[in-house]
UniProtKB/TrEMBL annotation, chains A, B:
This is 3-isopropylmalate dehydrogenase. SMART domains: Iso_dh. It comes from Cellulophaga geojensis KL-A. PROSITE patterns: IDH_IMDH. It catalyses: (2R,3S)-3-isopropylmalate + NAD(+) = 4-methyl-2-oxopentanoate + CO2 + NADH. Belongs to the isocitrate and isopropylmalate dehydrogenases family. LeuB type 1 subfamily. Its EC number is 1.1.1.85. Substrate binds at residues 97, 107, 135, 221. Binds 1 Mg(2+) or Mn(2+) ion per subunit.
Amino acid sequence: MKLNIALLAGDGIGPEVIDQAVKVSNAIAKKFNHEINWTPALTGAAAIDAVGEPYPDETHAICEAADAVLFGAIGHPRFDNDPSAKVRPEQGLLKMRQKLGLFANVRPTFTFPSLIDKSPLKRERIEGTDLIILRELTGGIYFGERGRKDNGDTAFDTCTYTRAEVQRLAKKGFELAMTRSKKLCCVDKANVLESSRLWRETVQAMEKEYPEVEVSYEFVDAVAMRLVQWPNSYDVMITENLFGDILTDEASVISGSMGLMPSASVGEKAKLYEPIHGSYPQAAGKDIANPLATVLSAAMLFEDFKLVDEAQAIRDVVNKSLAEGIVTEDLSEGGKAYKTSEVGDWLAENI
Amino acid sequence: MKLNIALLAGDGIGPEVIDQAVKVSNAIAKKFNHEINWTPALTGAAAIDAVGEPYPDETHAICEAADAVLFGAIGHPRFDNDPSAKVRPEQGLLKMRQKLGLFANVRPTFTFPSLIDKSPLKRERIEGTDLIILRELTGGIYFGERGRKDNGDTAFDTCTYTRAEVQRLAKKGFELAMTRSKKLCCVDKANVLESSRLWRETVQAMEKEYPEVEVSYEFVDAVAMRLVQWPNSYDVMITENLFGDILTDEASVISGSMGLMPSASVGEKAKLYEPIHGSYPQAAGKDIANPLATVLSAAMLFEDFKLVDEAQAIRDVVNKSLAEGIVTEDLSEGGKAYKTSEVGDWLAENI
Ligand SMILES: CC(C)[C@H](C(=O)O)[C@@H](O)C(=O)O
Ligand SMILES: CC(C)[C@H](C(=O)O)[C@@H](O)C(=O)O
């Protein structure tokens, strides 16, 4: 297979972790006889510095032309705590999601047996957790009308959803549930919000198309609780953009393997893969960041192109590196701490 | 002191737990020479059944005339999963908050040494946690314009805040921080939402009035993570209505003492006290529900009337009941499970 992949390394540790995912993907390509063409492009603070724009048109053109995008991380501390900053790295992220139509963010949370003791939760609470949150990514309050009135003394944001937006996300949820344990949880705040009532009634109407899927409906506040209490009671969850933002992050820390969690964002055509961790500016340039989440994001990429053995080979070598302690300092626990680049080299060699 | 307290028992286990808080409060009144007049009033599903309205005008008049309101719980399963229900218990709650002007919801999360092992978190993560979330309760997306367009295929909700709304909530936050460790965390989503940018700039402008308070600003998704990872790193937090809904519930489960957590909702004049747990319909009428959260809510009530010794006496007797195992089945762990009413009697006798 021939794959054209746009490479958006971004800010902070982005470039370093992306490098390792490229090494590993190239090793996969060699072993399984694929051809990968990588096209780097600017994004985030790096793009603001270079061309004054966090998601330049040229970058968009490269992403659109590619079969998939591999993304590092964006964000820089100099933009934080400055509500008046005119251009922000995050705007690039939102623009990219919208222009590429990446309406579904796929966020798995699972555990690695060897890392379970790193979880803030007790072992019996977290063991067996294997859930996926599908977060709607191009609608809701992130993209609704917003502004000021009364000389700036009143601010408003609008959360809008259409039935079609809910349907396409929910469809992915039902389909994913069919490949897993056939349990789907729709997370909303239908006791207060009209948009949530639209979500709930739309999903309810779709239930008959998937008679095998058992659907439950839960309020977002209740889910925020149960995710901490019994995360292993969830399987596939679907939710709107803002709730998804909060819940996927909450879910990411419960496994104790936040530095290892990959993600995908997909649209009708576009596909983007990225680690869920941020740009971690304190570690940038030090060759100490954990590259495994980005490497596992590459595995999700291969899998979405039906290259299942390739994806499995990556997961296997990651498990092997964990078992043999070929890990960066965040996981080394008194053992040897390998450099980011050393972990990448080891993974590529052991493919 | 003479106190007129409106008694809104509500649904499910509400009446049972309220009864115990009344017993304990009456014992306090006797011991400290106060006079309490209790005026019961209807709310929730109980009020819908009786008069077709979850927060009837008569109930509002009783609450307005009272010095404070003691509230049980509302909600009934027959209203869940029915997006089309015209009248819902929750509407009563929202109407009550708005009509009484209860703009600040005060939600402490703390640990009881004897219950720490009930926390889903590891001991070292939860030990020492003692935080208070101040949730704005009468603004934001809960009360903004909402509706449908396009023949019902588009739904919208509006989140609106004014500077004055942010200021009055933030003022409470700063004042509370001054009585504690002088740390205040403002939780928002200022990298996306205009209303959050108003929150952040308003709080930033107030910093100079409270030079001793160290203020931090965090995004709601990051807080959802850190609350699970290092809850003991927080002290006083302020946030808007919807974020507060999610985060206060998330915080409530980390201590392992959810059934014991009290809360207050206050306005310029009105004051309301309630357990944070729900109406727990499965347990209704069985005399098995844990009354301690409601009893501790009564302690918050006394404290807000500067009756500090009275509040402390309640907390002391609650601690004593925990130490001596005079507890309901949720806490009895193989020991004797006392009835709701027995726990209330014991507390009242031991005041
Ligand atoms: C940076 C921010 C705009 C973004 C979001 O809220 O979507 C981030 O938190 C995420 O979840 O990818
Ligand atoms: C019942 C519901 C409307 C309410 C809310 O969301 O405010 C509840 O969850 C709460 O937190 O008191």
